[in-house]
Write a structure and sequence with these properties.
346 residues; alpha/beta; DHBP synthase; Rossmann fold; 2 domains; eight-stranded mixed β-sheet; four-stranded parallel β-sheet; 12 helices; globular; binds adenosine monophosphate; binds magnesium ion
């Protein structure tokens, strides 16, 4: 038997009406499809079909202790999978479609595999119109974690998905362009609405959520959790989103620091240095420099973070040095969370 189809990798489909119908049919048959979203690309399967969802865990090499997010076409479908409450409905009205995931008590139709055996389910309505059209056409909620092998940098383009999941059972990726947010969703646990908990900082600013709720989000202590250890709060692994090249995280880093680094180390700056700073660099320094934004805007840094880490990871550097975003505003906590976990050892 030839192994050629595996080596070819999944095919990338443009979001035409005919292609959407074809991919929706694949999903209904229990197959996987790579999907675009505003956060990162997802690896989708019929959320109500445990055999289909099992393929997600197998393709990613994801432990079954790490539950999946269920994606809906509309907030009106929330009652099909979860038991909502007034706080959840208020957040849904304010932020869906968008990069906010709500954890709520689950209904029995949601397979235990999806929730990793928990009595709760994570739910979101994505903002990418093509993803929502596909959910509608499939006619069922779609479970979808990021479309990368477990622990590696999340994908923000269809090509990232193809490159990362070649050799798995994934056959098709829907191309919806580059992800506009570039970070995973913010996850809020509303199982007890009086004590809303921020499980993961993400593409939606936690302060905006607190304003709508009229309460502070409880931030659970993140203990160091490693793969294979039963995790009280699932998915909070300390190492995640990681390039294969060791990432060294600094409190701050500028173009002057780059000059002092070892000659085969790369330097990821938060923003483009001033032209005067770039003009007089020692030979060979400029090619070791990358930046996440032109103007120092957090949204631009978030959008470029994963793609830039991937580029650097493919260039053969000994180490990648990166800096944390100063301040705790807007997307800064989410960017710093991803950087910290990308740099974590175990
Ligand atoms: P992702 O890997 O981006 O799909 O995000 C999935 C993450 O959502 C998991 O790793 C968990 O952190 C979180 N999650 C999903 N379902 C639940 C749940 N029922 N309770 C708590 N956290 C959840
Ligand atoms: Mg992920």
């Amino acid at each position: 038997m030839s192994s050629e189809p595996l080596l070819q990798g999944p095919r990338i489909f443009r979001p035409t009406t005919a292609n959407l119908a074809r991919l929706a049919a694949l999903l209904r048959r229990g197959e996987l499809v790579g999907v675009p979203s505003e956060t990162v690309y997802g690896l989708a399967a019929d959320a109500l079909n445990p055999a289909a969802c099992a393929k997600i865990f197998a393709a990613k090499g994801r432990p079954t202790t790490d539950p999946l997010i269920v994606h809906l076409a509309s907030a009106a479908d929330l009652d099909r999978v979860a038991r909502s409450n007034p706080a959840a409905l208020a957040l849904a009205a304010a932020f869906w479609p968008g990069p906010l995931t709500l954890v709520l008590p689950k209904l029995a139709v949601v397979p235990d595999l999806v929730s990793a055996g928990l009595p709760t389910v994570a739910v979101r309505v994505p903002a990418h119109p093509v993803f929502r059209r596909l959910i509608r056409l499939a006619g069922r909620p779609l479970a979808a974690p990021s479309a990368n092998s477990f622990g590696y940098i999340s994908p923000t383009s269809a090509a990232h998905v193809r490159d990362g999941l070649t050799g798995t059972s994934l056959r098709a990726v829907l191309d919806g362009g580059e992800c506009l947010v570039g970070l995973e969703s913010t996850i809020v646990d509303l199982t007890d609405p009086a004590k809303a908990r921020l499980l993961r900082p993400g593409g939606l600013d936690a302060a905006a959520i607190e304003r709508v709720l009229g309460q502070k989000l409880v931030r659970p202590h993140r203990k160091t959790i490693s793969v294979g250890v039963a995790a009280p709060a699932p998915g909070m692994l300390s190492r995640h989103y990681s390039p294969r090249t060791p990432l060294v995280l600094h409190k701050r880093l500028d173009v002057r620091d780059a000059v002092k680094l070892a000659s085969n180390d790369a330097c990821l700056l938060l923003r483009k240095p001033a032209p005067a700073d770039l003009r007089h660099l020692p030979p060979g320094t400029l090619r070791r420099l990358r930046w996440l934004s032109e103007r120092g805007e957090l949204t631009e840094m978030a959008k470029n973070l994963f793609a830039t880490l991937r580029v650097l990871d493919g260039e053969g550097w000994t180490r990648i040095h990166a800096a944390q975003v100063p301040g705790g505003e807007g997307l800064a906590p989410a960017i710093n969370d991803r950087l910290k976990r990308a740099a974590a050892k175990g």
